[in-house]
Amino acid sequence: MSSVSACNEASSPPSSSSSSSSSSSSPQPSTISSILFQSGNVVLLDIPRSLEEAQVPPGLPPSARIVSGAPPLKPFTTPEPRDGATADHWLRNSQSAGAHIADLMAAAAVQSALDQLHSRYSGPFCLPRLCNAADGLPAMSAVRMPHGAEYLHGSIRALRQTFVDRAPQFRLIVLDPPWPNRSARRKKTGRYNTASNLSEIEQLLSSIPVASHLAPDGLVAMWITNKSSILDLVTSSKGLFASWGLELVTQWTWLKITSSGEPLFDIESAWRKPWETLLVAKRIGAKAPEALEPKVILAVPDVHSRKPNLRQLFQDILGQGYPALEVFARNLTSGWWSWGDQVLQFQESEHWTAINDGCSPYETHCSM
Fold first, then answer.
1. DSSP output for 271-293
2. Residue among 19, 48, 52, 50 at smallest CA distance from 123
3. In the prediction, which pLDDT does 269 show?
4. DSSP β-bridge partners for residue 276
5. In degrees, to the nearest 5, what angle opens at C-alpha 266 toward C-alphas 174 and 198?
6. Phi first, then psi: what are they for 300, rounded to 5°?
7. 23 assigned to some structural domain
8. What is the pLDDT of residue 25?
9. pTM of the model
10. pLDDT tens, 303-317?
11. Which residues form a coiled coil (predicted)?
């Protein structure tokens, strides 16, 4: 039997008169957008739904549901350092002044977004999730292939020349690098291979031919962790963006929330931040798109390492059908190129359940 985990005990479609994605009448479940609420630069997004939408061309309803993790119900306890260091000591010794200012600005932005969301939105903070593959529903092929998706399955170094020879120019290049992460290495799952140090990841990223495959008016969007050394590595005057001929335009912040809308960790915690950052850059001297502004994306996290799919959010900036590439991808997107040694990780049949004709994609069972 299939298992659906409901967020905030909500099993009906979200509706809110304050959401730009809502109408006066509640939408049918099959037409629910991944964007549950949007006002200005604040977006409430459902991660599994964004991945389901990305399997088909824009405007078409999803044909399958992705198997997800149960949404966190309560905030996590903020971990304390083993050496007993104080927050002030940690900040003085591990953060640059620029990174500290960036943290303060991010904290203010996410708090403002939370205040706006809770004052203007009354619906659920995520859609009901399919937490186990459903028995008796149509079987999926071994690997799910979205329409128009292209992929290079293998390491960056091994497939670099193939990419240079075959790939076009892109108006968007998204990167989710395997930044050094001690906790990920300790898990030893074999599914999430991180770099061992900053020097290794810098060499790997420098080998990606971004400059030659980015359109003149294109954007680069890179996910980073909250370590100040990583921010400096990417954005400093001799950093990665500069080596690609890019300059930072803005940043988007993904605030991880619980199914009740609370931050996953204390916003003011020095040890663990409840957000991840997406740095958005353009070519030096190029004009930035007028619609490109800072954004706070509030979303309940899914399984480990699964990010929100960004196709729809950048569609508002670049228009429909823009050519895009995702490097270090873990799933495919219709109409995009994907490159990395885990591009098919979430495309395998075990992660998907087909939607029956006449059945709502957000119902556990359908009565015919």
1. S--SEEEEEEEEETTPPPPTT--
2. 19
3. 80
4. 254
5. 40
6. -75, 125
7. no
8. 38
9. 0.85
10. 988 999 999 999 999
11. none
At residue 328, what is the residue type?
Answer: F
**What span, in angstroms and rounded, lies between the C-alpha atoms of 121 and 251?**
24
Burial class (CB in 10 A: 0-12, 13-18, 19+), 130: buried
b/e map 180-215, b = 16+ CB within 10 Å: beeebeeeeeeebebbeeeeebbebbeebebeebbb
> Residue 41 carries which side chain, given as an amino acid letter?
N
Binned at pLDDT 50, 70 and 90, residue 187 comes out as very low
Residue 213 lies in a domain: yes
Q: Give, for 248, the enclosing helix (H) or strand (E).
A: strand 246-256
| Three-state secondary structure call for residue 174 | strand
**What is the span of the domain harbouring residue 282?**
150-255+269-347
Residue 179: partners with Cβ closer than 8 Å, 6 or more residues away = 194, 195, 201, 224, 225, 227, 230
| pLDDT the model gives residue 18 | 41
Instruction: Report yes or no on 6 lying in a domain.
Output: no
Percent of the chain with pLDDT over 90: 66
Pairing state between β 337-340 and 324-327: parallel
Contact 311, 56 (CB under 8 A): no
Q: ∠ at Cα 297 (295, 302), nearest 5°? A: 155
Amino acid type, 121:
Y
Place of tokens 């593959």: 133
Report in angstroms the alpha-carbon separations of 187 from 225, 227, 272, 304, 346: 18, 20, 18, 11, 19
For all residues of the chain together, what is the average pLDDT? 83
Structural domains in the chain (count): 1
Question: What is the spatial distance between Cα 42 and Cα 236, in angstroms, rounded to a whole number?
Answer: 28
Please tell me the predicted confidence (pLDDT) of residue 24.
34
Per-residue pLDDT at 78: 73
Here the CATH number for the domain that contains residue 274 is 3.40.50.150
End-to-end CA distance of the chain: 17
Per the domain annotation, does 354 fall within a domain? no
Residue whose C-alpha is closest to residue 117's, from 44, 68, 180? 44
User: What is the strand order of the sheet 246-256 is part of?
Assistant: 35-39, 42-45, 295-299, 246-256, 275-283, 214-224, 170-175, 324-327, 337-340, 150-153
